């Protein structure tokens, strides 16, 4: 049997529930041989993850998941095998964090207009030097009793068109890819089917992605069906991109979405880890 790679996961440096150490130990327990920690717009969890991985005897691929603007869309670009200390990446990530923090304040202001106060102060205290995401707002709304589930929080407050939604100008797609590449990493388009793009648009995205130096696309993701994998692989083949595999694990408790619980890549798909 081949080794298990899981190249997309989150710790509590962004919206994951586990500390980097807990995440690495759980990956080890699940039989993962190589894990990428890819927190939203931060590399703050990587030093701890690296230490834990060395101690546990599992390979850690340093990573990040950048939020990128492309025309009117927000795309997620996973950077793998990055040097987190590279100045171009450090500077870019600082820019993203500023945008994220401003957005969090605006979301909180919008929620306050609906009578939901204090979200920003509670969440900024909670994340410390980590990043606030909409998932934190969702948990806040659940904990305060405004909604029953995270999904309700998105449906009623946080998704596009809802009262707590704030349109956000993230760094451009080409900039995000350039920072990752400068830092010695490879750029991967995360969960390509989650953006609900038409065929015309996904092709437009992938042409721009590739032109900017992007090299991979997630072909196997956490809950992908056989059809999803087939379609993602079609996009990969058409645009000559390497195939990546990642659970996008955030928290324990969902039996369908676990670290390392991933289908095999289709035969013939070139694995992204050939590049590192
Ligand atoms: P942000 O990058 O701050 O917009 O937050 C996006 C994060 O929120 C994603 O990475 C997911 O973890 C989470 N998320 C987005 N949409 C949903 C949803 N419908 N249900 C649960 N979590 C979601
Ligand atoms: Mn997330
Ligand atoms: Mn994502
Ligand atoms: Mn993710």
Short description:
The chain has 276 residues and is α/β, with parallel strands linked by helices.
Please describe what this structure looks like.
The longest helix has 27 residues, at 87-113. α1 (20-29) runs parallel beside α2, α3 packs across α7 (173-182) and α5 packs across α6. A seven-stranded mixed β-sheet has the order 1-2-3-4-5-6-7. The two termini are 21 Å apart. The chain has helices spanning 20-29, 46-56, 87-113, 119-127, 134-143, 150-158, 173-182, 199-211, 226-238, and strands spanning 4-6, 32-37, 59-70, 73-80, 186-189, 216-221, 242-246. The radius of gyration is 18 Å and the shape is globular. β2, α2 and β3 (59-70) form a beta-alpha-beta unit. The mean pLDDT is 97. With 276 residues, the protein is α/β, with parallel strands linked by helices. The site of one manganese (II) ion has 6 residues, from loops.
Beta-strand percentage range: 15-25%
Query: How would you sum up the major sheet?
Result: 7 strands, mixed
Cα gyration radius (Å): 18 Å
What is the number of helices? 9
In sequence order, what are the helices and strands, one letter per element? EHEHEEHHHHHEHEHE
Structural class: alpha/beta
Globally, the shape reads globular
Average pLDDT figure:
97
The separation of the N and C termini measures 21 Å
Instruction: List bound small molecules.
Output: adenosine monophosphate, manganese (II) ion
Strand order of the largest sheet: 1-2-3-4-5-6-7
Low-confidence stretches: none
DSSP strand tally? 7
Helix content: 40-55%
């Amino acid at each position: 049997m081949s080794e298990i790679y899981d190249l997309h996961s989150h710790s509590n440096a962004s919206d994951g529930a586990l500390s980097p150490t807990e995440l690495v130990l759980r990956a080890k327990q699940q039989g993962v041989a190589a894990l990428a920690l890819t927190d939203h717009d931060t590399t703050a969890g990587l030093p701890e993850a690296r230490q834990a991985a060395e101690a546990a005897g599992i390979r850690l691929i340093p990573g990040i998941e950048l939020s990128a603007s492309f025309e009117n869309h927000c795309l997620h670009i996973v950077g793998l095998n990055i040097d987190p200390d590279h100045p171009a990446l450090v500077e870019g990530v600082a820019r993203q964090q500023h945008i994220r923090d401003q957005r969090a304040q605006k979301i909180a202001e919008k929620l306050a207009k609906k009578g939901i106060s204090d979200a920003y102060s509670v969440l900024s205290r909670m994340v410390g030097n980590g990043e606030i995401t909409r998932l934190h707002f969702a948990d806040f709304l659940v904990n305060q009793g405004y909604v029953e589930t995270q999904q309700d929080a998105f449906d009623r407050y946080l998704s596009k068109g809802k009262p707590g939604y704030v349109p956000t100008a993230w760094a451009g797609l080409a900039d995000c890819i350039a920072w990752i590449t400068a830092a010695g990493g490879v750029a991967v388009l995360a969960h390509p089917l989650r953006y609900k793009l038409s065929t015309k648009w996904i092709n437009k995205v992938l042409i721009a992605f590739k032109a900017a130096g992007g090299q991979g696309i997630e072909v196997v993701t956490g809950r992908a069906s056989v059809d999803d994998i087939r379609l993602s692989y079609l996009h990969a083949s058409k645009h000559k991109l390497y195939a990546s595999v990642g659970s996008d694990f955030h928290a324990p408790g969902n039996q369908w979405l676990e670290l390392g619980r991933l289908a095999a890549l289709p035969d013939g798909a070139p694995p992204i880890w050939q590049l590192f």
